Amino acid sequence: MARNAMERRQRLDAGRLRMRSEESRRQAIRLGLPEFVVRLAAAAKVKPAMWNERVMHRCD
Fold first, then answer.
1. What's this model's pTM, rounded to 2 decimal places?
2. In sequence order, what are the residues at sequence separation of 6 or more whose Cβ sits closer than 8 angstroms to the Cβ of residue 10?
3. Are 41 and 51 in contact (CB under 8 A)?
4. For the segment 12-36, what is each residue's pLDDT rounded down to a tens digit?
5. Gap between the Cα atoms of 49 and 33, Å rounded
6. How far does CA 50 lie from the centroid of its chain?
7. Cα 35 off chain centre by
């Protein structure tokens, strides 16, 4: 029973992560960033709130 709860929690976390990365990808596309930057940011787990500081000044 505890195992089922753990698996369910892991599935929920995975879904939440997927939603967050999808949201940041959409925001990046809206900002007109290239796809590789989007993938890099997803790999580095950069949240949309951190885009301007971390990503934008490297794209110039």
1. 0.32
2. none
3. yes
4. 666 666 666 677 777 777 777 777 7
5. 15
6. 11
7. 13
